[in-house]
Amino acid sequence: MRAARNMNTEWTAHQYFAGLDWAKDHHDVVIVDRLGAIATEFRFAHTAEGWGEFAEKMKPYAGAPLSLETSSGPAVDQLLQRGWDLYPVNPKAAERYRERKMPSGNKSDRPDAWTLADALRTDGHAWRRLLAQDEATATLRALCRDEIALIEQRTLLVNQLIAALHEYYPAALQAFDDWTQPSAWALISEFPTPAALQKASKRRWEKFLHTHRLWRPSTAPERLKLFAKANALPASAAVTASKSLLASSLVRILQTLQAQLEQYRQRINQAFNDHPDQHIFGGLPGAGEKLAPRLLGELGSIRQVFPDADALCCQAGVSPVRYQSGQIDKARIRWACDVVLRHTVHLWADCSRKVSAWAQTYYQGKREQGMSHAAALRCLGKRWLRLLWRLWQDRTSYEPQKHQQSASAHGSWAIRRLNGLQATIPNR
């Protein structure tokens, strides 16, 4: 039913349909007419001269819809700047179209472009056009995604650091639980080996803890004891020499990376605060300064991208996929979705439980039904997304009291439980 609502009823008015198979240094274009005959095909380089050649050769086909196997990247950016109507194809769907056209398994750039163009001709009337976001939203989205990539890189480096410390410096791992904190890295910078730490005086240990704001009456005595016997079981000289150099190198990289992450956080906060939709996302329970900009960036500012709440829930991966065949009828997790949005909603749902009694009640009810932690968070995330979609469409801020009143009016079992009443949890 949703596909029918989104169907382009003027699709037959197009005379030509284009497909582009992109690569890092060149792109292949094939254009077919409304009967499927190839009108033209060419390859051009991903250079200023190449794009000039593309513009010249595409003049007779201006206004033709264009399909390609990605929704982001330099090729998409260039095409959007030039005003082309783009229809991205999911890679899995593109593979199926290719198998339909070439069951032999043959794969090359130009046939791939032809497959995309012909699929656009026959099926494109039901596809969703890629809409370019405004500069403020595009900037925020790019900053948030790049920050996530840097955080993932930090996690990789931290895991490498922990692995190195396991081999020669177990006392450091016992002294600190969270190795994403700069204060833990500072221990390796100041005391690169267990022997260096144990030989230092108690006053120097205490100074280190005070300098990095680690002095706590509950933890300081235990840490001092660990420092005093840090070299009780020393590794061999060869292992200590090599792994201490590796640990020190990783720490220096992590410290540099952390400085860049702090710069990203400042830029993201500024871009988020300057965005006209900031008031919608800034007050979401549990979103905070990190998740709210990511949610705004992924939803964007163009309301037509998600015509209803179900479209948003599917894109976020919180709506299950139905599998029905014969007597089998079940639901399973949706993997084809916006991965960044999925992870962001997962974190948001989890954080919301700490500040929203309604969210915690809803989550706990789903756990009582036998759901796993992740499944319960997906259900909670879906409820939050449906609410967020309404706020986003109406351009209004979240109001807890209004939310509870609306949920109560719709017979919410979570609200009934929150008010101390008995309520049956629906199995959906």
Query: How many domains comprise the coordinates?
Result: 3
Shape: globular
Q: Report the biggest beta sheet as strand number plus sense, adding barrel if it closes.
A: 5 strands, mixed
Briefly note the structural class of the backbone: alpha/beta
Task: Determine Rg (CA atoms, Å).
Answer: 28 Å
Mean pLDDT: 93
How many strand elements?
7
What share of residues are in beta strands?
5-15%
**In order across it, which strands form the biggest sheet?**
3-2-1-4-5
Query: How much helical structure, as a percent, in the residues?
Result: 55-70%
The H-and-E topology, N to C, reads as HEEEHEHEHHHHHHHHHHHHEEHHHHH
What is the helix tally?
A: 20
- Measured between the Cα atoms of the first and last residue, the distance is 21 Å
Give a structural overview.
With 428 residues, the chain is an alpha/beta fold. It has three domains: 2-126, Nucleotidyltransferase, domain 5 (2-Layer Sandwich), CATH 3.30.420.140; 138-271, Helix Hairpins; 279-418, no CATH class. The protein contains 20 helices and seven strands. It has a five-stranded mixed beta sheet with strand order 3-2-1-4-5. Strands 6-7 form a two-stranded antiparallel ribbon. Strand 1 and strand 2 (26-33) form a beta hairpin. The two termini are 21 Å apart. The mean pLDDT is 93.
